[in-house]
Amino acid sequence: MDATDTRQEAQAPAPEEEQAFRPLSVRRLMWRRFRRNRMAMIGAVLLSCMYLMIAVPGFFAPYEFDRGNPRYVFVAPQALHFLDDEGGFHVRPFVYPLTGKRDPATMRVVYTEDRENPQAIRFFVRGYDYTLFFGLIETNIQLFGVDEGTIFLAGTDGRGRDMLSRIINGGRVSLTIGLLAIVIMVFVGTAIGTLSAYRGGWFDTIVQRVIELIRSFPQLPLWMAMAAIIPPGWPSIWVFFGITIVLAMIEWTSLAREIRGKALALKTADYVAAAEVAGARAPRIIFVHMIPNLSSHILVTATLAVPTIILAESALSFLGLGIKAPMTSWGVLLSEANKIEIFRLSPWMLTPAIPLILTVMSFNFLGDGLRDVADPHSSR
Amino acid sequence: MLSFVIRRLLLMILMMIVISMVSFVIIQLPPGDWVTSYAAHLRAISSPASEATLEALRERYGLGEPVWRQYLFWVSGFPRGDFGIAMSMQDTPVADLVLPRFGMSLLLSLSTLVVVLGLAIPFGIIAAVNRNGPIDYLFSTVAFFALSIPSFIVALGILFISVFYFGAVSIGGLYDAQYMGEPMNWAKFKSTLEHMPGPMLAIGLGGLAGTMRIMRGNMLDVLSQQFIETARAKGLRERVVVVKHAARLAVNPIISRVGIHLPEIIGGEVIVSVILGLPTLGPLFLRAVLAQDMYLAGTIIMLFALILLIGNLLADLVLAWSDPRITYN
Fold first, then answer.
1. How far apart are CA B271 and CA B263, in angstroms?
2. pTM score, whole prediction
3. Which residues of B touch A232 (CB under 8 A)?
4. What is the percentage of chain A residues whose pLDDT exceeds 70?
5. Taking CB atoms and an 8 Å cutoff, what residues of chain A touch B163?
6. Closest Cα in chain A to B132
7. Which of chain B's residues have a Cβ under 8 Å away from the Cβ of A220?
8. How far is A218 from chain B (nearest CA, A)?
9. Which of A56, A140, A219, A259 has the most CB atoms lying inside 10 A of its own CB?
10. CB spacing of B163 vs A340 below 8 angstroms
11. Is B213 within the bounds of a domain?
């Protein structure tokens, strides 16, 4: 800073100067730094919206995701209109009801819009029943719907099920499996990583060899082999937890390695030595002194691992080794779309790829932002 | 150096023994065996087999024996090139099924790795040299988005475009249909090379983006060091400074990251091959896992680990060559 700058600052009005130099808490500083990263903020907001949606899927999904309507098979996404045929503008968007007719040549049902009978979208309509908060409240209000006809904003699949509702309910599995597996992974990885660094000796050697062995296999094939362990007769909720555990069982190794590296550096820190001299035992040193200092690092690593887990679940489900019906996930939905006829005739079946990419992207942005906040040395 | 390579090779053999055990145990873990899944299949096509037939099948494949004995039986064939038989494929020897596909997998994985590094390194250098310029922003933004697109979505996208816009009627393959079943020859090899860019794009896109970002970061770190300043002060051309002084140093961490990168490529290869119908190990492995065909699945997962070991060894050798500070003894 050169002389003129200093003078200008000295001349600044007193109250403002006071404000500028008031010491901020670490938390405030971190929040400030995080907020400056626009992409990370966008990621955080997008993820919040998605998790809100999957928290109450019955409210956001216009139809039941597992009940099909045989009269509406492979319906293309219905467009939302604001302008009617006379060119009049409507504030409330509307859709045209569909009538299906089988084409005698191709045996495919062709849907035509009934232009005479526009259906305005209604909000907070009463549709199918669902429960909120684990069965505490029973209700049948959906965010939007139409009085007559149908509203398939993302089209329907081969059994006449609304794709939008399926995507929202599929997101429920895809998004929670990431978080659940991460929680397991963080517990196992942190515990083993810190213990391995703190204890050293034979324990460390064994842990490191085991991790090396697990990592000497490429992840996806290993996941595939492990997922096959889940008995085919299990109900789908058990399969869900089984897949979660399988995903976490392999992914903890990367976290344990990183935590061990950081913990090794911490082990020689003065305050750990001080705690030892003061007579603290290993659990106290690990949980009270070391892990809190690793927490920001754990948070960043965990955030960046969420997309890996979500993608792994999608890949397994896509291959038919993951989630099974009546549950659904984005991977399952995409596997239903993986047919040439569908690419050609019903490409909207591929829309689950969009939320999947958005989720992964948001977690990457978020993790990047958190890393900037948590690690002041990596200023870019 | 030679003694290092020999020691690494010996260690690799030791690793492979442990890996073969673990592979076999993992493949054995699912409840039931191939006969159970075969019986389920027979029930599904409504011609259930009698308990005696199933027992005879178990007897024939030695499935009732203790696991360690089955393992020894499996391993004892390795020196003869016998990896057991694929029960779910009319008792074809596993080696006959796996070997041609292993070559394809190796070719696809390693060439994807080489192409990814070959593109990511220059892109990273260009981005770093034009720091905060339009090219840098373009590269970095594209890379950030590409990083978030999983390989199987890219593969679906490629398939979708080829079907929807180019009217393809059959899917992929790794060579023209006329070469199906032919042994590898020059024409088939050429046809294979022509078919590779699509799968390579699907498998390598994420890795390309990630490696580019790391290379850019490394370059920026190195370019701010004093010896770069010295090189410039000597009056060297900027090109020489960037390529011979900076890039040479910045590239080393990339090479040592191959060990992290290769498993992703192999995983991507599996799922992309399933989607695009490539004759690699991936689709065969999926079928073997679903049918609980243990010798087949065990052999394939072992081969995947072998590709990783080979890749890591090559990476270490390249690193030793490119970074003279590293000594092996």
1. 13
2. 0.84
3. 40
4. 91
5. 340, 343-344
6. A380
7. 266-268, 270-271
8. 4
9. A259
10. yes
11. yes
Strands A89-95 and A81-83: antiparallel
Lowest-confidence segment of A178-182, B256-260, B301-305 by average pLDDT: B256-260
What mean pLDDT do residues B71-81 have? 81
Query: What is the residue range of B194's domain?
Result: 108-279
Cα distance from B15 to chain A (closest Cα, Å)?
8
Chain B residues close to A338, C-beta within 8 Å: 156, 275
Place of tokens 């004093």: B226
Position A19 pLDDT exceeds 60: no
ipTM for the whole complex: 0.85
Phi, psi (5° rounding) for residue A307?
A: -60, -35
For residues B212 and B261, what is the distance between their CA atoms, to the nearest angstrom?
A: 13
Give me the long-range contacts of A134-139 (CB less than 8 A, separation at least 24).
A139/A58
Chain A residues within 8 Å of chain B (Cβ atoms): 39, 213, 215-222, 224-226, 228-229, 231-232, 307, 311, 314-315, 318-321, 334, 337-338, 340, 343-344, 347, 350, 353, 356-357, 360-361, 364
DSSP A121-170: -EEEEEEEEEEETTTTEEEEEEEEE-SSS---TT-B-TTS-BHHHHHHHH
- Find out whether B30 and A228 touch, Cβ atoms under 8 Å: yes
Mean pLDDT estimate for chain B: 83
Which tokens is A92 given?
């409330």
What is the gyration radius of the CA atoms in chain A, in angstroms? 27
Residue B198 lies in a domain: yes
Q: B269: domain CATH number?
A: 1.10.3720.10
Residue A324 sits at φ, ψ, to 5 deg, of: -125, 160
% of chain B residues with pLDDT over 90: 11
Residue A293: the pLDDT is: 83
Residue B92's beta-bridge partner residues?
B86
Domain tally for chain B?
Answer: 1
CB atoms within 10 A of CB B13: 9
Report d(CA B258, CA B82) in Å as an integer.
31
Task: Give the residue from B287, B267, B278, B273 showing the smallest Cα distance to B94.
Answer: B287
Report how many Cβ contacts below 8 Å link chain A to chain B. 124
A328 closest CA partner among A226, A237, A245, A248 = A237
Q: Is the pLDDT of residue B119 over 90?
A: yes
What is the C-alpha to C-alpha distance for residues B76 and B24, in angstroms, rounded to an integer? 13
A315 contacts B15? CB cut-off 8 A = no
Question: Amino acid identity of A365?
Answer: F
Question: Could you tell me which chain B residue has the CA closest to the CA of A365?
Answer: B144
Please judge whether B145 and A361 are an interchain contact, meaning their C-beta atoms are less than 8 angstroms apart: yes
For residue A317 the two structure tokens come to: 């489900």
| 3-state secondary structure (DSSP) of residue B116 | helix
Residues in B closer than 8 angstroms to A343, CB to CB, are 159-160, 163-164
HSE of B142, CA atoms in CB hemisphere, 13 A: 13
CB crowding B213-233: b at 16 or more within 10 Å, else e: bbbbbbbbebbeeeebeebee
Flag if A315 and B271 touch (Cβ within 8 Å): yes
Q: How many CB atoms lie within 10 A of CB B235?
A: 6
Calculate ∠ Cα A206-A208-A211, nearest 5°: 110
Please tell me the distance in Å from A220's CA to the nearest CA on chain B. Answer: 5
Does any domain span residue B244? yes
How far apart are alpha carbons B84 and B86 in whole angstroms?
7
User: Does some domain include residue B24?
Assistant: no
Q: What are the chain B neighbours of A222 within 8 Å (beta carbons)?
A: 26, 301
Query: Smallest Cα–Cα separation from A245: which of A192, A304, A309?
Result: A309
Block residue for tokens 């296999």 = A217
